[in-house]
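Worked example 4.2. Below are the chains of a multi-component assembly; read each line carefully before continuing.
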Amino acid sequence: MAWFMGIDIGSGTSKGVITKDGKLEVYHILASGVNYRMASLKLREELLAKAGLGVEDIERTVTTGHGAGVILFSNRHVADMQCCARGIKCIFPSVRMVIDVQGQSSQVIRVDEKGHVTGFAVSEACASGSGCFIEVIANVLQVKLEDIGPLSLRAKNPVTFTTGCAVFGESEAISRVAEGIPKEDILAGVHKALAGKISTLIDRIGLKKPCAISGGGGLNVGLIKRVEELGVELLIPPQPQIVDALGAALIAGEQDF
Amino acid sequence: MTKVVILNRNDEICASVIKHTGAEHRRLANKVMEEALEQAGLSFDEISYVIATGYGRITVPFADRQITELTCHARGVCHYVPSVRLAIDVGGQDAKGLKMNCGKLLDFVMSDKCAAGTGRFLELIAASLDLKLDDLGKLSLKSTSKASISSTCTVFARQEVVTRISEGVPLEDILAGIHDAIATRVARMVERLKIEPDVVFTGGVAKNIGVVKSLETKLGCKVMVPEEPLLSGAIGAALLGKEITLKALAQGKPVQRGRRSLSESTFFQ
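Applying the procedure described above to all two chains together yields the following structure tokens:
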């Protein structure tokens, strides 16, 4: 029996997975905070406790994500895109494309039958292309993160954001609130704006079906609806956030590591 | 910010008011006007001509005319520095570069799509560091090694600032990094205009000595800042108002005025 670990330190949350014989054994998610190294250590501790294992039981660890550079117990650092492709392939064997909506960027990745990346498009280094945009707007509307998606589904007239910038979008949202526009219409508007950005990323490399969603964005029913409205049917993993970490653990367990 | 300037016939400032525009005060340009009139000891009827400019110029119902901020800024900056060739204005919403010669506007660049490179960037950073906007500049000058802020995006830069703090980077070094980031962005924007001295810097961000110094390094020349960099647009508007009035009088025509009701704007209702 062989256990492998995958650690994905994101800008907002850190995700960890332990696989056993190529299958998901346990996973854990926690807030990254400002100290990524601390987050990685805590994550490993929690994972090992959940699996009832010791550090020595883990054959190899692969790390990925925004803050992976600072992790001390990594055997190899692998790009998040590769991890995502491998992870989604394991969950949906037929998948050919995955949209990874993270806290600091969105990526559209084309995946071959072996789970390798064959093409990709990444959003600009701008909050409006990432899940962060939604968080920023939800924050000014004082809506809890988990309520964003369901609330946005109740929108009757989604607003149109005239700006492509999350900061200016924040002011725009405040103006809309002052005009008496319901929160759900504003939220639906920001989801539409992000879905639009994702759609242009898809257009850049061409849509491949079946297409899945991963990352924190995969938890948001509002975003999923707006992306699907643009003609992209989505497969949704049971735990979209851990796809990259799962992929990392699977890569750690590969024969030719 | 909403600014009012009242000039007398000798182009001297009789009154100047600078107030937060805010969501509510967008309708209340009349209040700011009243304050300026009081300061100058004048009644509204004594004002020969009123020009409104800026993003909210249509929300000033008592103006005789609306003129774009580019024209007004150009005029205002020239008043301070007649030899100006490049006027840079960085406000809370946008950043502009105006290429000028002998008071004429030849070309301009503008960046209003994104908060990076505008005053909003500094406002947000100041708020997240719990510092006053006015203190950023002086504090940053104490820096001995500026922190690197790699994100262009304001939202990500704010997260980066938090990370730097947790790493124990001194505040002044972080601020120096922030000022360097905004100056880099502004310098890149005006590059297309082929930078030539004299360079004049206005807008709220010009009050930040840290950004001014960074910008001087990036542009490789002296950057002049007027005494009250926030007022150049309003002063330009007032000067243009005077020109319009004088022209009409010289031609013996009546001065075309607006409806002149010193009341709240009803535009948003």
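Take a moment to check your reading of the output against the notes. The mean pLDDT of chain A is 94. Residues 48 and 54 of chain A are 6 Å apart (CA to CA).
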